[in-house]
Amino acid sequence: MGTHPHHADAAGKVELAQVFARHGAAYLAAHRLAAVQQRAMRAIQACRTEALGGHVERCAACGRLRYSYHSCRNRHCPKCQTLAKERWLAARQAELLPAPYFHVVFTLPHELNALAQGNPRTIYRILFDAAAHTLLEFGENPRWLGGELGVTMVLHTWGQTLSQHLHVHALVSGGALAPDGHWIHPRGGFLFPVKALSQVFRGKFLAALKRALDSGSLALAGSTAALAETRARGALFAALRAQPWVVYAKRPFAGPEQVLQYLGRYTHRIALTNNRLVSFDEKTVRFRYQDYAHGNRRKVMTLEAHEFIRRYLTHVLPRGFMRIRHYGLNGNRAKRHKLGAARAALNAPPSASIPTPPESIENFWLRVAHLDIHQCPHCASGRLHRIATITPRAHGPPR
Q1: Could you tell me if 328 and 139 are in contact, meaning their C-beta atoms sit under 8 angstroms apart?
Q2: Element of type H or E holding 89
Q3: Which of 169, 260, 284, 369 has the most CB within a 10 Å radius?
Q4: What is the pTM of this model?
């Protein structure tokens, strides 16, 4: 018998959960996974199925039944990011300053990928710290600004083909709050020179990496085991110092709407969304990607199923690791006071300080998709009423 590929239907319904259902058990039997990776696989498979429970609704007009199942809420699940993103954006909207914002990207050389695979929590933390401290240091330097920046950073670990590509996107205020309380504007719409940023970022990262290696706090195994030896460690650092590190700064955003659009695009993005999946069969998985090296051309990649799963799970974050972080004026410790002072310096009215309760699911779908989730999709006139509860199997997968 030949293989029969599962293709997307008219609505594009090939899903990562289906790939895991077809190939996940065999992959788990052949590979040793971290607990957080196993949880992600189980959660994605169970999401919006009867395994997590739910409820049954009946239309008061036509009597049709609708079965609704709970979401897994795992942050690596393709189905569970929209509501979380919208709620997060609503909270950020009040924090935006009436000033330009810059988008800066800090990227790690691929020579560090193996170390990151064995030590994701430490390497990702060093990446955040080195990038953030570089930006804040440049902001405080009177040569450039001479005050405190507002910075929000988002970690991404993937490229378009699910390969490992470690980088942070930084949203940086176009200007800084001076110690005496006035706002310092960047000269000529220019923030910082990227070559200088790159050199300082490289120095800070390598200094922190050396401390981590010298203290023995990094796990060294497989291809990184040789780094326990002084000679191999020296060769790695020499290679990393010899190459330019990529820091990229985009043009400033035109206004708050563009900033929010940017945030929505990057903050809750995951390695691969369901709409990029094309098909899968007993051996392979096919998905769309953009080839940035050749004019952003859209292409389709075919991977062996186990390699596809391996790549996807590489991007599952350590449990509890915060992939969105705030620094300077945006830092959580004194954010309200500092942002208030910045707004005053910019002659802007204070933002609303009254906490807004989380938006209900009903209101969210009505606002975002103009969809009344209580209206019967069959007759389009009756209202749906809950008539039964579907009990989850055990307690569902860990989140």
Answers
A1: yes
A2: helix 82-93
A3: 169
A4: 0.88
